[in-house]
Design brief:
The longest helix is centred in the first third of the chain and has 17 residues. The chain is α/β, with parallel strands linked by helices and 321 residues long. The relative contact order is 0.14. The chain has an 8-stranded parallel sheet with strand order 1-2-3-4-5-6-7-8, sandwiched between helices. It is built from 13 helices and 8 strands. Helix 3 runs parallel beside helix 4 and helix 5 runs parallel beside helix 6. It is globular and about 50 Å long. The chain is 45% helix and 15% strand. It has one domain: Metal-dependent hydrolases (TIM Barrel, Alpha-Beta Barrel), CATH 3.20.20. The protein binds adenine and zinc ion. Zinc ion binds next to strand 1.
Length: 321
């Protein structure tokens, strides 16, 4: 079975990280700047290790410049998701990588991004802070997010090995008080302690990745009991070296333990993936079929950062599956 036509919800996708290599090369040519040194001989993205990934990622992002470029990128990313059967996408944008977090420039970029739509797909935009740029930057990003009408949520990505979740509590408190829904990357390059501390100090509804919770049975039980939703991106975890292959990835074990699982791609061109390919690999590895993926998508619809009417629309489109 191929999965392109199967209706899907994707909760964890980075706008900048969804830029295909050809898009970044074309932007560099358009601006007359040299292409960033992030490509391998096959023309795809190339990096080494997680630190190398984040550095290459930021170098590729640096080529993106101006509201028009971001609007074109958003349109291309949405069209690509729609072609892959995604009916609702939640997309991260990083104000610190867009115009360096400058509030006036970010407002122009955000206006261009949010003006983009695509038939058949609903969207929630989530502003994220970059963890390794520090707590003050995260607080300023939260302030910017709170002041930007139309954002659904606030979150944090970047190097999880930097700082402690408590350092970022003021940013998350500000965003929560502004009515933004919360998600945070944890349990990817940090272990179970990092996930537990993120839950304790940042109180998110969802965790980006969270898969290394599997190393602590007590934490797995806590995630299940508290109904925390994991935005699991297996292909990303395998490409970044967390697990050697699909069979070793803990998504099925987390599901069996009663943790609320959803499936996403993170930065698809970086990991040579798309959501239909993730489904195909998981179907092959675990024998999962349409009923399993429908269940994950219903979990994702329930956990989506959207209003009741949008949620009802998503659920109706999923039932077509
Ligand atoms: N930013 C983009 N992709 C990321 C990932 N997988 N982990 C942390 N930060 C990221
Ligand atoms: Zn991510």
């Amino acid at each position: 079975m191929t999965w392109e036509g199967f209706p899907k919800v994707e909760l964890h996708l980075h706008l900048e990280g969804a830029a295909p290599p050809a898009f970044i090369r074309a932007e560099a040519a358009r601006r007359g700047v040299p292409p960033p040194p992030v490509f391998g001989a096959d023309g795809g993205y190339r990096w080494q290790g997680f630190g190398g990934f984040l550095a290459a990622y930021e170098a590729a992002c640096a080529v993106l410049s101006g509201p028009d470029a971001y609007a074109r990128l958003a349109a291309a990313v949405l069209a690509d998701r729609a072609a892959d059967g995604v009916v609702h996408a939640e997309i991260f944008i990083a104000p610190q990588l867009i115009a360096g977090g400058d509030p006036v420039a970010f407002a122009e970029h955000w206006a261009a991004i949010r003006s983009v739509s695509c038939p058949g797909i609903s969207i929630a935009w989530i502003a994220i802070a970059v963890r390794h740029l520090g707590p003050q930057g995260a607080l300023e990003t939260a302030r910017l997010a709170a002041a930007s009408a139309g954002l659904a949520g606030f979150g944090m990505a970047g190097d999880e090995r930097f700082g402690h979740p408590a350092d970022f509590a003021p940013a998350f408190d500000l965003a929560r008080e502004a009515g933004l829904a919360l998600t945070v990357h944890a349990g990817e390059f940090g272990g179970p302690d990092s996930v537990a501390a993120a839950l304790d100090h940042l109180r998110p509804a969802r965790i980006g990745h969270g898969v290394r919770a599997i190393e602590s049975p007590a934490l797995v039980a806590r995630l299940a009991a508290e109904g925390i939703v994991l935005e699991v991106c297996p292909g990303s975890n395998i490409a970044l070296g967390l697990y050697p292959d699909w069979a070793a990835h803990p998504v099925a074990a987390l599901d069996r333990a009663g943790v609320r699982i959803t499936l996403s791609t993170d930065d698809p061109p970086w990991f040579a993936t798309r959501l239909s390919l993730e489904y195909a690999a998981l179907a092959r590895t675990h024998g999962w079929g349409p009923e399993d993926f429908r269940r994950f998508n219903r979990t994702a619809a329930a956990a989506a950062f959207c209003d009741a009417a949008t949620r009802a629309g998503i659920l109706a489109r999923l039932e077509g599956a």
